[in-house]
Every structure is written in C-alpha cells, then in structure tokens.
Amino acid sequence: MTEPDESTAKVHYICQTYVEKKVGRDGQDSLKIDKQFEYTTASEAQNRAEREAQSEDCAGADAYIVNEDPNTGEVEPPRFLIRLGKVPEFDEF
Predict the structure, then answer these.
(1) Are 15 and 36 in contact (CB under 8 A)?
(2) CA angle 7, 11, 14 (to 5 degrees)
(3) Organism's domain of life (predicted)?
(4) 51, 39 Cβ separation under 8 angstroms
(5) Which positions ≥6 away from 37 have C-beta within 8 Å?
(6) Rounded distance, CA 29 to CA 75, Å?
(7) H-only helix segments in the chain
(8) Nearby residues of 35 by Cβ (< 8 Å), 6 or more positions away
(9) What is the CA radius of gyration of the chain?
C-alpha cells in the first residue's frame, strides 16, 4: 500500500466579490472585499463570478486559482480566470 503524496499542491478555485465603500472626508470610493466562495472546479468559480457581477450591489467580481503547498502553507499569487466590473489592481490584491 502506498502513502498519499503530501508534496502535491492543493488547488483552490475562488470567486471573490467587491463592493464600493465611501472613505475619508472627501467620500472617495474604495473597493472592499464582500464575499468569497471556494469551489472544486475553475468553471464553478467563474460561473459564480459571472452571476455575482450582475447583482446590483456588486461592484465587481474575480474568479481565480491559487496553489497552496501543503507542507509549508505557502500560497502562490493568484491566476485570474475572469475579472468583471470594478476590481482592484493586482498590486492591491
């Protein structure tokens, strides 16, 4: 009997939505993470992002993939599947 390979990266498929919030005295708009959903496939995450982006209170939505090293817990930068509406620049992510 063989042991499972613990070095295999764990893949996370994420849908993340954003809302606009007024900040500061001048009332500038700022994006804030609203909801996060994790799925078992890329297409599920992308489909949810597309549905969420159509919601009236949603400023924007991302669907992305991240790989996690199960041994160290380190997570790679996201690879975006789709970005809809107002979303933060990658540097802000």
Answers:
(1) yes
(2) 155
(3) Bacteria
(4) no
(5) 14, 15, 16, 45, 48
(6) 29
(7) 42-53
(8) 15, 16, 17, 52
(9) 16
| Cα–Cα dist 14/20, whole Å | 20
19-74: per-residue pLDDT in tens? 998 776 776 778 999 999 999 999 999 999 999 999 999 999 999 999 999 999 99
| Tokens coding 89 | 């620049």
Instruction: Report the SS3 class of residue 91.
Output: helix
Euclidean distance between CA atoms 57 and 77, whole angstroms = 27
Give Cα separations from 12 to 28, 30, 41, 42, 66 (angstroms).
33, 26, 8, 9, 5
In the chain, domain spans? 10-88
